[in-house]
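User: tokens in, sequence out, please.
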């Protein structure tokens, strides 16, 4: 039997989704009484969910300001893309070796879904994360998939934040990425993954420079 979903689990899933989708924006206050009313539950599961999200780094406690959704930080985002460059090209190479034909076909379907023009931006950003995490899962190294997911959660949040500023982003190489993992050489796979990361990093930098409301971690 499946384990029943607790109220704390429900609160965690709803709050995390709302943070990643920037319904609760970076730097905004976390007020448990408001969230309890919003989600239709008591404050106890809300507090449990907030504690879990603090451990994951999506919620922070700042002296004299209280509990906040983690602000977007310039330095940390730079490091996120550096980590992607270290991990994801090799994850894609391993996926090309270890995934079954059926799994690679499913990867192509997920890739296509991530760039559907009829999907809203937040949905595309979530599918973008799921695609990169799936590639890491196909590498058959669980800790790698967990790390890639954590990196892409922060990226998803940033992309959704940019979307709220009227600057949406659509990945351009997902179809090529799925194809090259299926049929390309190791060199081609690494080059394609690295090029996609660099293009996304450039987009991130342009957004940070254009938006003065994003806190620059280098000056904090």
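Assistant: Sequence out:
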């Amino acid at each position: 039997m499946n384990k029943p979903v607790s109220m704390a689990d429900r609160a965690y899933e709803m709050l995390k989704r709302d943070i990643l989708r920037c319904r609760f924006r970076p730097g905004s206050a976390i007020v448990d009484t408001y969230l309890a009313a919003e989600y239709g539950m008591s404050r106890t599961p809300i507090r449990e969910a907030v504690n879990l999200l603090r451990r994951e780094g999506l919620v922070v406690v700042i002296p004299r300001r209280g509990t906040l959704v983690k602000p977007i930080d310039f330095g940390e985002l730079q490091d996120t893309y550096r980590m992607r460059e270290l991990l994801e090209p090799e994850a894609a190479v391993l996926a090309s070796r270890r995934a079954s034909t059926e799994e690679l076909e499913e990867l192509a379907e997920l890739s296509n879904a991530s760039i559907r023009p009829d999907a809203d931006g937040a949905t595309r950003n979530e599918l973008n994360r799921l695609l990169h995490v799936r590639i890491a899962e196909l590498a058959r190294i669980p800790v790698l998939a967990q790390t890639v997911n954590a990196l892409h959660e922060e990226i998803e949040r940033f992309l959704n934040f940019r979307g709220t500023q009227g600057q949406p982003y659509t990945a351009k190489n997902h179809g090529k990425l799925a194809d090259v993992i299926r049929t390309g050489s190791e060199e081609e796979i690494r080059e394609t993954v690295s090029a996609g990361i660099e293009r996304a990093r450039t987009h991130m930098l342009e957004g940070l420079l254009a938006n003065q409301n994003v806190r620059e971690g280098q000056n904090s």
